[in-house]
Design goal:
Blueprint lengths: L22 E6 L3 H11 L5 E7 L2 H11 L3 E4 L8 H8 L1
Helix pairs in contact: 2-3
Amino acid sequence: MIDSNRRKSSTPVGSRGNGKEPIRLLLVDDVTVLRQGIRALLDGSDRVEVVGETADGLMGVALARRLRPSLVLAEIALPSLDGFEVTRRIR
């Protein structure tokens, strides 16, 4: 469902000023086949670049700090830290 009351951003998602840079995505999920599937779906895309992946919440936080992705896709149920805590720490 689309919220028609939301304001539209003047900057496209994933752009960093020039509109040409892809969204830098970090995958944090303990299901390997799911991470591989998401990566396979996005391979070859010029709009999304998977910059890293991990199966562990703590490592997800560390990778986010090091890799500086523009988007993190994290599962809620993760080893060591759940997805909510991962999000809180990255934010």
